[in-house]
Amino acid sequence: MKRILEILLATVMVMLCLTGCAKKTEASTTTATTEAPSVETIANVAASTEEVAESSVLTDNSINIGYGTAIDSLTPFRSNTAKNAPYMMQLYETLGVLNDENEVVPYAAKSWTTDDNGFTYDVEIYSYITDSNGNNITASDVVWFINESKARGLKPTFSKVESATVTGDYTLEIKMNSNIVGAFEGLLIDTFVVSEKAFKESSDEFGLSAVSTSPYKVTSFTPSAQLNFERRDDYWQDIELLPECVRPLQKYVNYSIITEAFQLGVALETGTVDAVIDIAASTGSQYVGNTSYTIDLSDGPQGWQVFFSGAESSLLAKSKELRQAICYAIDENGMIQAIASGYGTQMWDCASPRLIGFNEKWKNEDYYQYDVEKAKELVEASGYNGEELVLLSTSSATASRLGQLIQGFCRQVGINVKINAVDMALYTAIRLDGTQYDMTINTVGGTALPDFWSIRFDPAAYTNGDATGRNDMVLADLIYKAWTVDGFTEENIDAVHYYIKDNAIAYGIVNPSVFTIWNNNINMKKIVRGGMSGYVSFASCQLGD
User: Fold this and answer.
1) For residue 29, is pLDDT > 70?
2) Environment class of 37 (CB within 10 Å of its CB; exposed 0-12, middle 13-18, buried 19+)
3) Average pLDDT of the segment spanning 107-129
4) Are the CB atoms for 511 and 347 separated by under 8 Å?
């Protein structure tokens, strides 16, 4: 299928879309069954809820949400960890926001234009933006945030910026160092609108108390436990001018951070929370058929992947056959059952099929289908002598379980794997150092394939190479050719896909479905979604009295 990249700039919305690309699976309500229905066949939530006209009517409602990814600081200078968490939608405003149509639309930015095919952008922000302390936001604040983010080097997005300069009180110029598809849109999403003055006056860089331009203000925060918001009475923007996915319809939005899936389910069952977002399928599936709750089931935004070390010290960096053997040794259907209770799909690339640029034809091609004998043949061909291979993961329940399963699958074909499961802080500190492991489990997403490629496989992205310490310039040249506005073609995208696949540089294991569940007592009238993961935006949904 021919893909056509459309970039609409200098309009109210910017859309990146490839004709024929995989579309985001719409949310669905599960039916009462003991088997896991496919995402494609279960009934659509929108069809079963009352259709309500788009509204910007504010309420006094309070919504309590349970979510499993912890946040230990409110600082706006962050790594990609928890980037897609739903509470980020209330914590900070951004220049642009991804809506439920996978379109980047203006938020704090009023408009942006480019006259040189995506290398240079003129951005205008609203002239009346104020934060919760009453500070007026100017272009200088935005430029400061971009340049400070670039200097701190916590997000790869900002490494793609050549310069950001003030051109007027409320206008700025951003020069990108390349016109990578999705790079500027990613910058819009990652640029938090923060007062430089307020940040520098903070004693802990907004660690425990943030000053934000968001429609909400933080009323209380307990790291890795609780984050509570209240709608601002002095919010700067007319609600009707906001994208629907960030309209603050609920007055109070409270997040309980509960990292253990069973306890997250208990919180929902006991009424501690009204809804849970992205709960593990093993717990979420227990609500199938329970008429007191609605289950929103959608394709996972990222999937789980194994990335093989590219560091010269790793045995796996030197042996394509051994990497391929590990891929063939993994039983993807067994993974779906063990990790997602049957609610999920295999992957056909190391990137999620939801990313812009994914080619549907890949689903009809062999992608290291489980084959023990083939794996054993490759182990023998590799010359492997039983050396210990280190598998790095976080100590989260899902990652640990994945690690144990991979260890078992490798053992049955004669590969010796040692698991190193560490807490998130340590994992974040060492995950980019390929000398610390031979392979690592991660869950990485993005908006478009170039976004994913740049995070994982660009040898210029980090100090020692790509995200595993690899310096593969053949792959780099393929990526650099494919990720430009003019080069983002099916032929070039395929070249990157097949190179990564054929050389087993990374392997997509399983893509669990996302379970979002809410108590029907909230009387959901209209579902609104938004953000990088397409989660239900409960703060912006229309709820009954």
Assistant:
1) no
2) middle
3) 96
4) yes
